[in-house]
Amino acid sequence: MSDKSTIPFGPQHPVLPEPIHLKLVVEDEKVVEAYPAFGFVHRGLETLAQKKDFNQMVYVVERVCGICSCMHGQDYCEAIEELMGIEVPVRAEYLRTIWAELHRIHSHLLWLGLFADAFGFENLFMQTWKIREKIMDILEATSGNRVIISVNIVGGVRKDINSEQAKWILKELDEVERQLKDINDVVMNNYTVKQRTVGIGVLTKEEAYELGATGPMAKGSGVDLDLRTTGYAAYKYLDFEPIVEKAGDSYARNLVRMREIFQSIDLIRQALGKMPEGEISVPVKGNPPAGEVISRLEQSRGEVVYYIKSNGTKFLDRLRIRTPTFANIPALLKILPGSHLQDVPVLILTIDPCISCTER
Amino acid sequence: MLDMLKSVFSNLSKKPVTRMYPFEERKPFDINRGHLENNIDECIFCGMCQRVCPSNCIKVDRKSSVWEYDPFECVLCGVCVEKCPKKCLKLDVHYRSCTDKKYNIHLEKHDDSEKAGA
User: Which of A17-21, A50-54, A304-308 is the least confident region?
Assistant: First the structure.
């Protein structure tokens, strides 16, 4: 009789509110194989592109993911703008960048809370979500909604940030940074956190590159891959370096995300300082011409790719979205074998899984 | 470890971060997208809101002067408010209260202006 046994992880699991199913083959508490299964929350959003016109689709693609929704809309709009040859006003580029970075901060804070929750650090969960609430307030005050902010349209943005709001945002960000620094020192030097993360789930640089990992998963393994360096939106005017850690373990991925929050705060400060006056959108006339376009940008979880095929009418022929979690699943399956069963929830959370993104 | 103690003591002296909802409610922001309202007296039934709505929750019948809206389909993006030529649509900052029954909002215009004009 074989001493291997199979344990199902998910689709309903206490540490992860989203449905992913993993069949774990274990041998003496050690995972030897892992098989994923998807499709529990498939909504068919891509097919909707053939039924709703391209302006309405902005609000549909925002609902691919609840956490990085703004960046989905931004990527879609940038793709359509490239197809139609529209020049977006510089102020709109800056505003998009500011909202995207705010989303990155709140996504990473949300992740940190869930991650802390995964190994029973409830206090940290509450602290990070408390800080996150300030970011949500900024989003609500500037756009009118907390999560799905619906600010991007083809041709620019819908809402503006005035100078009073900018001052208030900077003040709130100072407070967020101060509180986060307190937490950062505690978390990153905490004995329990180190025991659960250092040296666990190591993904080497070569593996990360070969398996096509993106975002903090790749950056934590030393792959210098940050699409913001390609200079879309206002990143071409801002000064920053991609954050890379070499260790490739869970701790390195944590560190990347923690440092990215501080980097995002810095980027918002730069953007608010450099933002020029002017129009926030340009009028768009007509339908996208027939053709194909690929647009990519860096989300909080990694690279998102939008492929759009248009046929000259107001309905798109094909919309294909490749989300960062989808790209990180092969890397996850690489780090799971060899780990202990109790580390599986922590390892799954270090890729910052967004299953609703993955299944669209 | 001692770093955390500092925040533990500071949290002891501060008031709670959470609110005692529903006894204490948060004041909504000025541009909060709470719920959609239509001032039917000014509405010209052009159907612009129906065309731009991403969730197709608005139905406008020009002939019978009926404006129908499903608040449960609405995603509160506010694009109809921006495109409304008469600016009779507006987003209120307060949310609709919860309910266990779905309903449609059916607004009709009964005016005598046509008769008076004729």
Answer: A17-21
Quote the pLDDT of residue A262: 92
Q: How far is CA A114 from the centre of its chain?
A: 14
Instruction: Return the ∠ at Cα B25 (arms to B21 and B31), rounded to 5°.
Output: 135
Q: Which two tokens stand for residue B58?
A: 């608005």
Q: Is the peptide bond before B28 cis (omega within 30 degrees of 0)?
A: no
Q: How many CA atoms lie within 13 A of A181 on its CB side?
A: 7
Domain contains A203: yes
Split at pLDDT 50, 70, 90, the class of A265 is very high
Neighbours of B51 (CB within 10 A): 15
CATH value at residue A243: 1.10.645.10
The answer to whether the CB atoms of B75 and A127 lie below 8 A apart is no
Report d(CA A292, CA A315) in Å as an integer: 13
User: How far does the CA of residue A55 sit from the closest CA of chain B (Å)?
Assistant: 8
The answer to whether the beta carbons of residues A309 and A316 sit under 8 Å apart is yes
Contact A304, A71 (CB under 8 A): yes
Q: Is the pLDDT at A48 greater than 80, yes or no? A: yes
ipTM above 0.85, yes or no: no
Which residues does chain B have with pLDDT short of 70? 1-3, 111-118
Peptide bond into B22 cis (omega under 30): yes
Please report the domains of chain B, with CATH numbers, ordered by start residue: 28-110 (3.30.70.3270)
pLDDT tens per residue across span A187-202: 888 888 888 888 888 8
Instruction: List the Cα angle A122/A353/A256 in 5-degree steps.
Output: 75
Residue range(s) defining the domain that contains residue A298: 56-327
Number of domains, chain A = 1
Secondary structure of A210-242 in HEC code, one letter for each residue? HCCCCHHHHHCCCCCCCHHHHCCCCHHHCCCCC
Among B17, B54, B82, the residue with its CB nearest the CB of A52 is: B54
Average of per-residue pLDDT across A172-190? 86
The alpha-carbon gap from A61 to the nearest alpha carbon of chain B, in Å, equals 11
Closest residue in A to B75 (Cα–Cα): A59
Half-sphere exposure (Cβ direction) of A73: Cα atoms closer than 13 Å: 30
A20 belongs to a structural domain? no
Cβ contact A304:A296 at 8 Å: yes
Most B-contacting residue of A145, A159, A162, A190 (CB-CB within 10 A), to test interface:
A145
- Express each pLDDT in A73-132 by its tens digit: 899 998 999 888 888 898 898 999 999 999 999 999 998 888 888 877 788 888 888 889
Q: What pLDDT, on a 0 to 100 scale, did the predictor assign at position B3?
A: 66
